[in-house]
Amino acid sequence: MIGFRQLEVRDFGVIETADLDLSDQGLVLIKARNTDTDAADSNGAGKTTLFHALSWVLFGEVVGAQRPAEEIIRHGAKAAQVTIEFTDGDHAYTVVRRRTATKSKLTLATDGAQTTFRTQKDTEERIREILGLDWDAFRNTVLYGQGDVKRFADPDTTDAERKRVLKRVLRMSRIDDALKRVRDELREMRGDHADATSNLRTVRAEVGTIERERDRAVTSRDQWGDARDRRAASIRADLRRLEETSAEDRAAAGQVVRLKGIADKLADALDQRDALTQIVNEKGDLYRTARNEVNAIRAEVKSARRRVREREEDLEAIGEGGVCPTCRTVLEDSTAAMEHVGELRQRLDAATDELNDATTREANAARKLEGVEEEGHDAWVAVKAMDKWVGKDRHVQDLLGNAEGAAARLAIADARREELDTRLEAIAEETNPHHETAARLAEESTEGRGRVENALAALTAVEAREPGLRFWESAYSSRLPSYTLDSVVPFITEAANLYLGFLADGDMSVEIVTETDLKGGGAKDQIDFLLTIEGTKGVRPSGGQAKKLSLAVDLALMDLVATREGAQIDLVLLDEVLDGLDAEGKARVVVLLRHLREYRSSIFVISHDPAISEHFEKVVTVVKHGGKATLESTT
Asked: Are 35 and 624 within 8 A, CB to CB?
């Protein structure tokens, strides 16, 4: 839906300045007051100029003959400029058209940004695209203009003129252009068919070459990939076997720390055993020395005891026979004998002293021997108690040796595993030397297949165009013009009767026909109006009835154009539609306007009759003074 917002007019026609709000204005009456002449109250004040300004800014056209620049520009001004703002629901647009005596300028802004094209023609085309209609569609959809071509239903309008109007409204003048384009397209289609056929053969050959190269590249890529996968699989198998063979070594190596702790403790115990063994050996040596000493002393005791006995025996011998035991001399009781006996007694005492000394030394040596023997025995018992650790130490050392061997093997296995992992990572990072080529050729092949499909689609599309072109050649040359006129007439009839229902309250109806019966029989291809007035067919309308018929038919044509163009504009501009009607006719038009108001939010009506102001929601007054028109008030 196109919604117009604001119209700004500067020095256009007789208007010096005018700002007109177009958005959701309801029913608006545009009246005028011309203070420059006593001959007319409102004529020439510039009411219609507002409508001219609106159509000129959008299309560069006004109703009636094309006006020269000097009539567009207000007398005394250097340039005319009109600005209009509107929206299509998604974007806001501003169009500015400016005209001087020598040149014109058109600008377009979209959402505040300049979107003017390089040429004015291109900009005008963009405006038509946004609005969805051109000048002819606009003047029949939105603008009921004073001074427009003859009304369609006017009795003085000839059949040829009606057909020209209808063809213009329906753009049927383009059918001949369409026929020419169709025939041009048929010739172009034949050339396109030859080109498309040749192109398809060329593309297929090119794509066939690419696909063969692609297949070779894919084979090389896959073979290289398979070889790489086999190498990786072999390494993974080695890793699995290495893991399996290392499982026991890993478990054994895990005991190294514990076994070392046990071995250290056993070493400490064995060190203690060695120390005790050394003590045993040392005590053994001392024992043997002490025992030899005891034996030697005992020998001395024995010798001393023998000498004591000998001395005692000597003394006893002297006492029994008076014979010296040493020299066997018979002793006499004399001093010499007494001295000899005293000497023997001294020897006996000395021998006794030696015996006592030896006995004492023997006792001391025996005690010493006993002490050494006891100490050596205790150490020997301790050594014997520790002998069991010797066997355990050997076992632990064997286990530790096995564990350390397992750790050494595990270190070798880990180094091997790291090597294999590195090789596996290197393989994973290897780039297939054929991948890029295969991918490129695959992409080219895909693109090539797309080109083949496009070429085939192009050929198919060319071939598919021919039946349609043949059909439209026949349609545009004969059937379509007649069919189009015949098909829209019922729509115009229905719409016109709808509007007559408002204007005549059912007293008038019309049937629009495309064939008129001839008196001599047969029919003539002619657009005509069969009126029924107050129940009587074929009655000639009065002036007011003719005015109602003309307005109803024109509104029906507006609906037709809107339907055909698909353009919906929330605006109606009616110039002097009420003039020439009696009070009842005007009242009916007002009812019609209220009906139009239900689906058009802004309806502007130009009229000379100030008495109808009360039927409008707003009134805009155009005041001309000193040759310049302005909008004086809006109520």
From this structure: yes
CATH of region 1-132+567-635, choose from 1.10.8.420, 3.40.50.300, 1.10.540.10, 3.30.2310.20: 3.40.50.300
- How many CB atoms are closer than 10 A to CB 149? 15
* Inter-residue contact 435 to 221 (CB < 8 Å): yes
pLDDT in tens, 464-491: 888 888 887 887 776 777 777 888 889 9
- CA nearest to 92, candidates 76, 78, 110, 77: 110
CA distance 610 to 613: 6
* Cα R_g (the chain), whole angstroms: 70
User: What pLDDT digit, counting tens, does each position of 302-353 carry?
Assistant: 887 787 787 777 777 665 555 555 555 565 555 666 677 777 778 778 878 8
Max Cα–Cα distance, the chain, nearest Å:
230
State how far the Cα of 491 lies from the Cα of 556, in Å rounded to an integer.
8
Helix, strand, coil percentages, rounded to 5, for the chain = 65, 15, 20
Asked whether 14 and 628 are in contact (CB, 8 A), the reply is yes
Threshold 0.85, pTM exceeds:
no
Domain range summary for the chain, segments of one domain joined by +: 1-132+567-635, 270-399
State the Cα–Cα distance between residues 229 and 430, nearest whole angstrom: 11
Give every CB contact of residue 204 below 8 A, 6+ residues apart in sequence: 452, 455
* Structure-token pair, residue 385: 């108690």
Q: Which pLDDT does position 2 carry in this prediction?
A: 85
